[in-house]
């Protein structure tokens, strides 16, 4: 657990190499975390549509859906900041840095939808 926390701190402070920050933390883990949030949201929708045990969920369904949809947002902001800072490392060509920054903003925007 300490290792994960230290890696997340390194990501947020821009200490990771750009390749790792972008591909590993933004693309791979970002997609995985956002898909998990979407799957949980779909489970709430399915449960709220059926009668029986789900009666307790129906009044809370809109709030649960919003909460589950926004749950990955802090991580998404973390990887945007991390990639943005990693792109500013010395030795990163300006074209590569600009492309990474543009791509991470596009990825963040996509993840807001899914």
UniProtKB/TrEMBL annotation:
<keyword id="KW-0472">Membrane</keyword>
<keyword id="KW-1133">Transmembrane helix</keyword>
<feature type="transmembrane region" description="Helical">
    <location>
        <begin position="60"/>
        <end position="84"/>
    </location>
</feature>
<feature type="transmembrane region" description="Helical">
    <location>
        <begin position="90"/>
        <end position="113"/>
    </location>
</feature>
<protein>
    <recommendedName>
        <fullName>DUF805 domain-containing protein</fullName>
    </recommendedName>
</protein>
<keyword id="KW-0812">Transmembrane</keyword>
<feature type="transmembrane region" description="Helical">
    <location>
        <begin position="26"/>
        <end position="48"/>
    </location>
</feature>
């Amino acid at each position: 657990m300490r290792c994960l926390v230290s890696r997340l701190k390194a990501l947020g402070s821009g200490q990771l190499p750009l390749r790792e920050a972008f591909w590993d933390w933004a693309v791979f883990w970002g997609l995985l975390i956002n898909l998990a949030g979407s799957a949980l949201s779909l489970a709430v929708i399915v449960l709220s549509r059926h009668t029986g045990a789900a009666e307790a969920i129906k009044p809370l369904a809109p709030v649960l859906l919003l909460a589950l949809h926004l749950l990955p947002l802090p991580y998404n902001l973390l990887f945007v900041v991390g990639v943005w800072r990693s792109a500013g490392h010395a030795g990163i060509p300006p074209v590569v840095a600009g492309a990474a920054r543009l791509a991470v903003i596009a990825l963040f925007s996509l993840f807001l939808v899914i």
